[in-house]
Here is the input.
Amino acid sequence: MAAEEVPLWTTTPVSTGIGEAQCPANAIKGTAVEIGRCISCGYCSPAFQPDGDPRTSIIRSTEKAFRKSFHIYLFDAGSCGSCNLEIKALGNPYYDMSRLGISFCATPKHADALIVVGVLADGMSAPLKKAVEALPSPRLVFAVGACAISGGIIGKSISGIVEADVVVPGCPPNPFTILDALQKSRGDRS
Amino acid sequence: MVGEDVITGVLESGGAEYEIASGFGVPFWKKAIGRDIEGREDFKACVGRFDEKAEGADVLNFTYGPSTGGLTESCKFNIYTYGERILSLRPEPAYKDRKLQVSGSGLEMANLKIERYCGPLSPFYSGMLTAAVEAIMGNGENNDLRLARVIMNEVSRISDHMHVIAKLAEGASQNVAYNLLFALRERLLRLVSKRFGHRYFFGINGFGGLARSADFRGISSEVGEIADEFRQIWIRLENSRIFIDRIQGTATLKRPWMVGPAARAAGLRTDTRTEGSCLRYDDLDLEVTSTTSADTLARALVRKDEIFASARIIEKAESMIREVPVAGRMSLVGINGEISVRTETPGGDSLMRVSLVNGVVRKIYIRPSSLQNLAVFTYGIKENLLTDLTFGYEGLGIHVSEVGGVL
Here is the structure.
């Protein structure tokens, strides 16, 4: 992975000490950044600049049973559509998640992990509950993108329905970040 | 449907709801059904309503969605069928309606929210909002800023069209073409990332200028290389009988209210870029292509031609661009006014009506192209087979997030 291939503003902003930061998502407190709230807008520049490291995920629990075969199900709880496309991009030849034994499946009943994107739309609450109930054990739930993690600037997070085992920040997180999180969540190295 | 019009939304005013019909070339607010709403200013989110049903002995309502592996975005489809042929189809796109609250927001926050109204189309929607605010403020057109926005829109159009054609190839099990197309789109997104700092142009469109600097030098040659590679993939795709057989004659529909590639595939040479767009294209050698068979193949052919047309527009725009202004923190306090603006998204004509009071958004109404394309799908897929569903839907490039509207 070359540094220029990472969309800079989806990585963690760090303080430059120049001026005062403006953050519409309230992700910045002093010099600290709550990365799960960051919406990658760049409005904090020049007081903050992105560090260029896409490995921003937070792993709360891992499941080694998925090290050789990992089936994931994309669940759109109310997204703008870009997180969905970044997750689907994992199948393209640049990322080729299948070489790592990771594949999409068509129903949560067959999934090892639920990859939730978007804010929690009212209409998707019941389907999300059903999807979580349908997941067999062992299982992992991912919150991908600022909307699913914190609600971002749009709505409410998915935490009212399910607590995520893995948090993947960004708006949207780039495919490197998502792939890195998938690998770490099953105990593999980044 | 009412005559040749299609219901594309709902206005609420004084506690009453008014259905909105869109006709070809007719402003949305003049076609409310049953009652006169001319001059009404209170409007709320646009939601799709489709009452298509089929009834009778042995008719099965086969429900698909709202969340299933076959759909990139959540949407429920009620498919009325005897088991093979689709008698009628009723989509329910409101499941993932986020009720995006823009009213009451300051303009910079509103712009960030509008970017996330439909992420893959963010330069189109933030471009409409910024153009509307600049028009209300009476700012004269800045030619370099216009050209910069044209380039961002056309790159985004190429990306969206490639995605649609790749999804069709995937549905037809043309896995080599599908992977090549998705790899090509990835190259395009990386080009955007490198030059604009974000793969979907978030945070780049500002009021009176770009919100941060971007690199436009040499962009047309990189896009041109991608377009040339796309041409090679397409030549092989159109020689595949498997691919053509799946999309020829699928979801055929010809109606005067259609927009975008669906309209141009039905012989209607309508393109907002030639009339009424908030961005001028008159000096950019825009060529509007059309064909007449009105099916999924025709829509794919139109999108294919538009990829090359967009590459040529980017080349012309880059040759004319000088210095793109970067917006400072301009004062947006105290702006009042109301205006409608339109743009040609990859899916077709989209309209935004913006109402501001003291620099705060009072209301924004959006009539997106996806709502009309969802109607094309609903009516066009009748009498097709269940296996045609993917091609009818994906060939229209519908973004479900667009259908929800904003509050």
Remarks:
- Chain A has a mean pLDDT of 93.
- Chain A touches chain B through 54 residues (CB under 8 Å).
